[in-house]
Amino acid sequence: MDSKLKRLRSRFKKAEIDSIVVTNLHNVRWLTGYSGTNGVAVVSKRHAIFLTDFRYTEQAAKEIKGSGFKLHEATRDLISTLKDIDPKVFGKKAGFESEYLQYKNYRAVNRALRGIKLVPTEGILTGLREVKDKSEVSLIRRAVKLTDEIFSEILPLIKPGVSEMDLMAEIEYRAHLKGAYASFETIVASGYRGALPHGRASAKKIKKGEMITFDFGVVYKGYTSDMTRTVVVGKASEKQKKIYDLVLRANIAGIKAVKPGVSARDVDTAARDIITEEGYGDRFGHALGHGIGICVQGDRINIHEGPILAQRSKAVLKEGNIVTVEPGIYIPRWGGVRIEDDVLVTKNGCSIMTKSPKNLMEL
After folding, report:
1. What would the pLDDT profile of 163-177 be if each residue is shown by its tens digit?
2. Cα distance between residue 269 and residue 279, in whole Å
3. Cβ-contact 237, 218 below 8 angstroms
4. pTM
5. Are 133 and 320 in contact (CB under 8 A)?
């Protein structure tokens, strides 16, 4: 993990800072390896200090070992404890994560570091996190593999009369059995509810002839997966086949466009144009995809990270990015289809990490 410290410190000059106070738990975990829910990291040109409280000191001592950080136990709230650190550590200018630090906490940091100029440093840590090293890729591969396994295991359970909640419970239960947990609240949206891109599981019972969209992922040792598959209970209608085929073609086109040096916007366009040309552009209302990586336990919302594959994105793909490619079509009172894969940007192109079948399954 020392390499992560080196990468962070290499950004100090451009950001015009001597140190940085890291409060976002995703970034804290990426830097230190700490998986608890209360921690702050301080990094300067020569020092790396990790703050936590009594509840987590034993855990933290094990988890941050080898990270280059020195453990400091707080006797009060972590931000107030910053004033116990030698001011020389921070230098004249200390950066803070302006995209995450609430104003209340900013004021507390300002009080604790009286006399030291605070400099907003939006995106430094999140930008570094976007490019995965070999160990991170390996952990995400494992999370993706577990997701594939779970999907294959629940397929025999899908039948008329089973509720969306039943299937969600099976998915999340099986994640725990495999030493993982759900990345976010599992989406199971059947029939007309498939028109809801984030249609979380309800008490609705599955009916014959309906499509079901499953969107779920697992967190394995701090790293997440994210997959979507849509199936049909019984024989698919001609319209279901048409919409599914259109989304599948967009998914394949989007993945084909993924390679280093390509703009995230162009990848989005490659998939979006296929759907738009068939007259369903207004039914595909979200970005094509997003980056995945670190996921902190207890945070079932912020699993998305950069780069974002969208029309407004200014990102350019780099080797080591892992992104989702997830086009969808959502038709009110009818339903919807989404197909999502996790894709690694490689030296010369990309590698599809998700292995679950993408042919239209008629169960």
Report:
1. 999 999 999 999 999
2. 15
3. no
4. 0.94
5. yes
Q: What is the CATH number of the domain that holds 277?
A: 3.90.230.10
Structure tokens given for 318? 């780099």
Burial of 330 (0-12, 13-18, 19+ CB in 10 A): buried
Domain boundary residue, one of 105, 129, 153: 129
| Residue 153 half-sphere exposure toward CB, CA atoms < 13 A | 17
pLDDT digits (tens, 9 = 90+) for 59-109: 999 999 999 999 999 988 999 999 999 999 999 999 999 999 999 999 999
Torsion of CA 184, 35, 307, 127, to 10 degrees: 160
Name the one residue in this structure whose structure tokens are 């703050």: 51
Nearest in space to 275 (alpha carbons), one of 250, 311, 312, 254:
250
Structure tokens at 98: 């302006």
Give Cα 314 distance to the centre of its chain: 19
Q: Look up the domain containing 157 and give its range.
A: 134-352
> What integer pLDDT is reported at residue 102 of this predicted model?
93
Residue with tokens 């199971």: 188
Task: To the nearest 10°, report the CA torsion of 277, 278, 280, 282.
Answer: 20
Q: Are 250 and 283 in contact (CB under 8 A)?
A: no
The predicted pLDDT at position 158 comes to 98
Query: Does residue 360 form part of some domain?
Result: no
Q: Tell me, what amino acid is at 193?
A: R
Q: Angle 293-34-3 (CA atoms, 0-180°, nearest 5)?
A: 65
3-state secondary structure string across 146-177: HHHHHHHHHHHHCCCCCEHHHHHHHHHHHHHH
Q: What is the pLDDT of residues 302-348, one digit of tens each?
A: 678 999 999 999 999 999 999 999 999 999 999 999 999 999 999 99
Instruction: Name the strand (E) or helix (H) holding 111.
Output: helix 103-112
85 with 192, same domain: the answer is no
Interatomic CA distance for residues 162 and 206, integer angstroms: 6
pLDDT (0 to 100) of residue 304: 84
- Pull the structure tokens for residue 291: 């980056």
